Amino acid sequence: xxxxxxxxxxxxxxxxxxxxxxxxxxxxxxxxxxxxxxxxxxxxxxxxxxxxxxxxxxxxxxxxxxxxxxxxxxxxxxxxxxxxxxxxxxxxxxxxxxxxxxxxxxxxxxxxxxxxxxxxxxxxxxxxxxxxxxxxxxxxxxxxxxxxxxxxxxxxxxxxxxxxxxxxxxxxxxxxxxxxxxxxxxxxxxxxxxxxxxxxxxxxxxxxxxxxxxxxxxxxxxxxxxxxxxxxxxxxxxxxxxxxxxxxxxxxxxxxxxxxxxxxxxxxxxxxxxxxxxxxxxxxxxxxxxxxxxxxxxxxxxxxxxx
Length: 307
Known about the structure:
The protein is mostly beta strands. The chain has one domain (50-304): Jelly Rolls. It has helices at 5-26, 293-304; strands spanning 59-63, 80-87, 95-105, 120-127, 136-143, 146-155, 173-175, 181-183, 211-218, 223-228, 231-232, 253-256, 277-287. Strands 1, 2, 3, 4, 5, 6, 7, 8, 9, 10, 11, 12 and 13 form a 13-stranded antiparallel beta sheet that branches.
């Protein structure tokens, strides 16, 4: 029997395809890749289910204010408090509401000691208004008997009247190795085309608008950044090395919503530029690293989603 060349080629091709199919059936996963569970990624933002997953290994202090003023990691409760309550409608669950109020923790947090706290990120959500007369201290890593703390998360709410909800001056400071203060602020720096030009960037605020504020400090570079609603806004971020670097002096205490001068019986100077905070705070977190841009974007987006 004779076979045409075309018929022969067809048979060879069929046999080859058959072998390939058989081979695939025998081992359809030659690299032993794990099966992907689609449900694990449903509803995630930048790969996270919620903000608690972001850099969780480096989180050293966390106040969720979900019905408690205790710091969650250490369990520390405030020593004294005033003008404080909880409200529904926080970024996640309840939030802290302050009416000329504060929380004071006369506690040396172990994770804020000098030898373990050289870098930091502080993140929080606030509902705040300008007041035209007094500054607001959102968070202070205070030094007993001293006006300026190791970290002072200051809002210059005295800069504008309450009717101005389009601008917020953010002016955090920290204590340096030298004992002096370093700061940053969201303001216009120099002019377009200049080497150090930085535009004036500001978040919108409001009594019922949650605004995300975040500080990062990198101890090896001396870079101190301010972020507002996912955007870097601080104009003076390079704060120097050597004696200009941050130092977390001991002992230290924590004050939320004020400084020593707003706490009866604790005043350390005649300075009256601050008032106890009126506004709301939620999801206050401190890490011992400077979070990356990707981390910061994720925290902001997760917060908007209530996660």
